[in-house]
Write a structure and sequence with these properties.
The complex is a heterodimer. By secondary structure, chain A is an alpha/beta fold. Chain A has helices at 25-29, 58-73, 86-98, 102-124, 140-145, 175-185, 219-224, 234-241, 259-264, and strands at residues 4-5, 12-13, 44-48, 78-82, 129-132, 149-152, 190-195, 200-201, 213-214, 216-218, 248-253, 271-274. In chain A, 34% of the residues lie in helices and 16% in strands. In chain A, helix 3 packs antiparallel against helix 4. Chain A is globular, with a radius of gyration of 21 Å. Chain B has one domain (33-219, 230-235, 246-263): 3-Layer(aba) Sandwich (Carbamate kinase). In chain B, 33% of the residues lie in helices and 16% in strands. Chain B has helices spanning 48-61, 75-86, 91-113, 129-134, 164-175, 208-214, 223-229, 248-253, and strands at 33-38, 66-71, 118-120, 138-142, 179-184, 189-190, 202-203, 205-207, 237-242, 260-263. In chain B, helix 6 crosses helix 7 (223-229). The chains are: A alpha/beta, B alpha/beta. At the A-B interface, strand 2, helix 1, helix 2, helix 3 and helix 4 of A face helix 2, helix 3, helix 5 and helix 7 of B.
Chain lengths: 280, 265
């Protein structure tokens, strides 16, 4: 029987956090550990870019679908995420122009990602895809056991409660970040982002002819010199610094045939960013 | 290979990872709503002796103000975080768990206020606030933000950084309210936890930036809220009052700076 404690006017349940305000740094530090539970570590998350893949239409999407299906048939345990694309950017432009608050803007953007999830699901349903709503978070083991291809929500459900950004008004927690956190909380080790460039560059290769591809790097090295123009949400990298599970983030060109299958098979293609430095 | 089919817009070519220069004039969605948090450990866990008087006071004020009531967590949240830490659960799981407790507290408040128009609302109901206020209701919600499994891992330990103070603050900010009221069991902010240090001094007014720089070992409000106040577009003042002192809530709702004010700056 758990003890209840009274005496300072409040009824407490005995625990090592009772009476604490949870702001005290010593208390917070004591809650960490090096052995955090990895809930579903053998699943890989693969994200299909919005602007980079979906907005190119059938010529880009259909080959990607083919490779995803082939990988599933080969037994890869994976969940799929999707980006938003140009409709997101348009939403943001209109919302900023209307003066909507950051939280309101965040509430709006997810819908455009979901459109791409609907497309992908329609194209893959016959091979076992299904859209995973937030309420079905814990149905994932069921879907994996049944050989399904879950398509998870990508923008995190911060909605109206999106924290104020460090500068400007655009929400900082987008679909790349949302997928990262989803993978991290489930203890996944590897995330693959499928875009329309060969990987991460030191600046936007669509704008700079002399952009240099970064093929292999580590998070600490990257954070020392994070490019201003990034192919993934900045928040993803900041969050990864505090994470315990994700070991590799891989960025590949979905317009190059065969790379998706190879990446899902575990090959290091495109840009591979590791959590730790290589010499550790 | 087809080109990207782009809808022309100001941000069409943006990767959205750089700060944009935009002529942004933020609107306040419902600035006259008073967002009010009833503390978990500080108030709910005291039971009737604390809650009945403060709710009586709230009912006296309800026709003068649009009040949105939000609930903190408390000792059950601490217990569940403690158990979850022992089981090595990730931060996102703790955030989901903590949400259950704040939800319970919000439901308790609703039962106590039902006769006076108290209704329990979910994040999905947020956009119906105008309807609820027109009907004279007191919307009551869990103070936890809806991040749940998507709460970011913390650098320090595994307790979620965004808990009920953050959820309440962000509610006030998105509604465009200029001030948010936290009803706790101390007169406001002190230099250290007054329950542990009898020499702790009361701070009636301080800027968030100054408070952050003081780097106190313990603070009365979640640290993320202090960070967010420094970036606020609307909710630039946190007010912390003592709900155990009769009259404080009435005065705070009337706009008086009782307790402590932490302001953007």
């Amino acid at each position: 029987m758990t003890d209840l404690l009274v005496g300072d006017g409040r009824t407490h349940i005995r625990s090592n956090l009772m009476r604490e305000s949870l702001q005290d740094r010593a208390v917070l530090g004591a809650t960490g550990s090096d052995n955090e539970l990895a809930i579903m570590p053998n699943v890989t998350l693969i994200s299909i870019g919005g602007q980079s893949i979906f907005d190119r239409g059938a010529s880009a999407i259909m080959p990607v679908v083919g490779e995803l299906v082939a990988a599933r048939k080969a037994g890869v345990q994976m969940v799929i995420g999707v980006g938003g694309g140009t409709r997101v950017r348009h939403t943001l432009s209109v919302a900023l122009d209307l003066g909507l608050p950051t939280g309101g803007i965040a509430q709006l953007v997810g819908a455009m990602e979901e459109c791409n999830a609907v497309f992908l699901n329609a194209l893959m349903a016959d091979h076992g895809s299904l859209p995973m709503q937030r309420e079905h978070f814990w149905d994932l083991p069921l879907y994996m056991n049944a050989g399904m291809l879950p398509i998870v929500i990508s923008v995190p459900p911060y909605h109206f409660w999106e924290p104020p950004p460090e500068s400007g008004a655009l929400p900082e927690h987008g679909s790349d970040f949302g997928l990262f956190v989803h993978a991290e909380v489930l203890g996944m080790k590897r995330i693959i982002f499928v875009k329309d460039e060969d990987g991460l560059y030191d600046c936007d290769p669509k704008k700079h002819d002399d952009a240099k591809l970064i093929e292999r790097t580590s998070l600490p090295e990257l954070m020392e010199n994070l490019p201003e123009e990034l192919i993934l949400d900045r928040k993803l990298f900041e969050t990864w610094e505090n994470s315990r599970h994700v070991q590799k983030v891989v960025i590949i060109n979905g317009l190059t045939p065969g790379l998706i299958e190879r990446a899902l098979a575990g090959e290091d293609v495109g840009t591979v960013i590791t959590k730790e430095r290589a010499d550790v | 290979m087809s080109d990207r089919r782009v809808i022309p817009s100001a941000l069409a070519a943006s990767t959205l990872t750089t700060s944009e220069g935009f002529d942004y004039k933020p609107i306040a969605i419902e600035p006259d709503v008073k967002v009010l948090k009833i503390g978990g450990q500080s108030m709910m866990d005291r039971g009737r002796s604390a809650i009945y008087p403060v709710l009586d006071e709230l009912v006296q004020c309800k026709d003068k103000h649009k009040i949105m009531l939000m609930a903190g967590g408390g000792t059950r949240a601490r217990h569940v975080y403690s158990m979850a830490s022992e089981l090595e659960m990730p931060t996102g799981v703790l955030a989901k768990l903590g949400g259950y407790v704040a939800m319970q507290n919000a439901r308790m408040l609703q039962m106590l206020l039902a006769k006076h128009g108290g209704i329990y609302i979910l994040p999905d109901d947020f956009e119906k606030l105008p309807l609820y206020f027109r009907l004279g209701c007191i919307p009551i919600a869990s103070g936890m933000p809806p991040f749940e499994y998507w709460e970011k891992p913390s650098a320090l330990g595994r307790i979620p950084r965004h808990r009920t103070d953050a959820g309440v603050y962000l509610t006030a900010e998105v509604l465009g309210a200029s001030r948010v009221i936290f009803v706790k069991d101390e007169d406001g902010l002190y230099t250290d936890d007054p329950k542990k240090d009898p020499n702790a001094k009361h701070i009636p007014r301080i800027s968030a930036q100054e408070l952050i720089e003081k780097d106190l070992p313990d603070v009365v409000v979640e640290r993320v809220v202090l960070e967010y106040v420094t970036r606020a577009k609307h909710c630039k003042e946190l007010q912390i009052i003592n709900g155990l002192k009769p009259g404080m809530l009435t005065r705070a709702l009337a706009g008086e700076p009782v307790g402590s004010i932490i302001y953007k700056g």
